[in-house]
Design brief:
Shape: globular
Distance between the termini: 51 Å
Largest sheet: 10 strands, mixed
Strand content: 15-25%
Oligomer: single chain
Radius of gyration: 20 Å
Length: 425
């Protein structure tokens, strides 16, 4: 079967198995009235913080070990919330590139952050959604009664770990299966595939990227990230020796224009459309989210940032993995009894402008509702951190603007998408 015909068949199959708009509207009309009903068993977020995000190998965290970033995030939610570390029963950490899944070192970071040995920890890896998956794991443990209080975190140092760290030695037999082999297609090539398959021009991608940077610059200058960022005291190696610094803001944010972006060369395909300027930045960072039941938050007298409503994952062809949000978002909304029109803010990861724009356009999401403070093209995409970072950004933005519903979503390498729905308090 020819590649384009194969792609058409696969996408038709996905579309047939995705919730249609009519059914979603029916569900919304009949179910949305109970979304806002408060219950003692609700899964709520009482604190969501992150480190700044820094450019890999060039930014403020280029010489900082990933466990130091994780320690800062884990300690931050305890200190900010006032919840003692001994009350936290389990911690899930999303991370992608660390050796051995990062489990041993993450446990060590837990102790360095002042948590007792009674607090358990595991790492999880669903690639770019690992931080969100960590949150869903903790939420599920609370919902099932395994724990009452937990922390979902995400961390990545792309300064220290290359993409090969996350793959290891491969089984040659797998390469005989086309979709298995497609899992190894470089992410930038999958971006080119999406752009070509769905006619997303270089102009559209550069416009989208410039908008992300413009929004991030404005947000940073207005101090809109301060509620979610924990300053990090660290050091960098310079020609004059080790220098102590304090990193207080994202260092990948920059003013740019469509004209500037149009001058950049494509890097994944000759005469393609994906460039360094319309792709997410390779970055370092960490984030943590403190989660518990509503009953526990009330008992402790804690303010609630928001409530977890629903989540979903969706599989898509690996060679166009970037379309994942277009299928995960409708599934999560259907579970919540909501429609696209009910959502006030969408935090959609900008792995590449091509795939983010495709998902937004396919679902009919107004661009004014998407990444109002900029996205990964401007802020960066530290793989395991991103999902947890986006939860923090979303919840603080909903609170700041007195909005109600928000969605976090991202595409996932090897062909998936993930999405979660939150309601602000």
């Amino acid at each position: 079967m020819q590649p384009n015909r194969r792609l058409e068949v696969i996408l038709n199959h996905i579309n047939q198995n995705s919730p249609n708009q009519a059914s979603m509207q029916l569900v919304s009309a009949s179910v949305s009235s109970i979304v806002s009903k408060k219950s003692p068993d609700d899964i709520v977020i009482v604190c969501a913080l992150r480190t700044p995000i820094c450019k890999a190998k060039r930014g403020g965290f280029r010489d900082t070990h990933w466990t130091d970033l994780l320690t800062v995030a884990l300690k931050g939610v305890v200190e900010k919330s006032g919840v003692p570390a001994k009350a936290i029963e389990d911690v899930q950490v999303g991370t992608v590139l660390a050796a051995g899944g990062g489990a041993t070192e993450a446990r060590m970071a837990l102790f360095a952050a002042g948590y007792p040995d009674s607090t358990c920890l595991a790492t999880t890896n669903r690639q770019c959604s690992s931080g969100l998956q960590a949150f869903v794991n903790i939420a599920g443990a609370i919902k099932s009664g395994q724990i009452t209080v937990g922390v979902a975190a995400g961390v990545e140092s792309m300064s220290q770990h290359g993409f090969q760290n996350g793959v290891g030695k491969l089984n040659d037999k797998l390469m005989k299966h086309q979709e298995a082999a497609d899992c190894l297609i470089p992410m930038g090539v999958t971006s080119e595939n999406v752009a070509e398959a769905f006619n997303i021009s270089r102009q559209i991608q550069d416009e989208f990227a410039a908008s992300s940077q413009t929004k991030a610059v404005k947000a940073q200058q207005s101090g809109l990230f301060k509620d979610e960022i924990i300053p990090v005291h660290t050091s960098v190696n310079t020609s004059e020796g080790e220098k102590q610094i304090t990193v207080e803001e994202d260092d990948g944010v920059r003013s740019t224009t469509i004209a500037d972006l149009s001058k950049l060369k494509t890097i994944f395909k000759k005469d393609g459309s994906t460039t360094a300027g319309n792709s997410s930045q390779v970055s370092d960072g960490a984030a943590a989210v403190l989660v518990m039941t509503r009953a526990e938050a009330v008992k402790r007298g804690l303010p609630i940032l928001g409530k977890f409503v629903s989540s979903a994952v969706a599989g898509v062809p690996p060679n166009i993995m970037g379309v994942g949000p277009a299928y995960a978002i409708p599934s999560a909304l259907e579970k919540a009894g909501l429609t696209v029109g009910d959502i006030d803010v969408f935090e959609i990861n900008e792995a590449f402008a091509s795939q983010a724009y495709y998902s937004i356009n396919k679902l009919g999401i107004p661009l004014s509702k998407v990444n109002p403070l900029g996205g990964a093209i401007a802020l960066g995409h530290p793989l395991g951190c991103t999902g947890a970072r986006m939860i923090a950004t979303l919840l603080h933005q909903l609170k700041r603007t007195n909005k109600r519903f928000g969605v976090v979503s991202m595409c996932i390498g090897t062909g998936m998408g993930m999405a979660a729905v939150f309601e602000a308090e």
